[in-house]
Automatic annotation (TrEMBL):
This is Uncharacterized protein. It comes from Agarivorans albus MKT 106. It comes from the Bacteria.
Length: 58
């Protein structure tokens, strides 16, 4: 699925039982969990959900 390139949009994905939040048009994401969230810096701006999952899985 192609990600809408609008900074007002976001995508939440589950990878191996862990949920991640990504705000479109950026290179940062974070793990959704109670308390402090773990920040992740992506190597590039993903254009599809599959690319986002690949970047988060590294």
């Amino acid at each position: 699925m192609e990600l809408i390139q609008d900074p007002r949009c976001y995508t939440d994905v589950c990878i191996d039982g862990q949920w991640y939040h990504y705000d479109h048009c950026g290179t940062s994401a974070y793990m959704l969990k109670g308390g402090a969230s773990s920040g992740i810096e992506l190597q590039s701006i993903p254009t599809t959900e599959n690319e986002l999952i690949e970047l988060l899985s590294r």
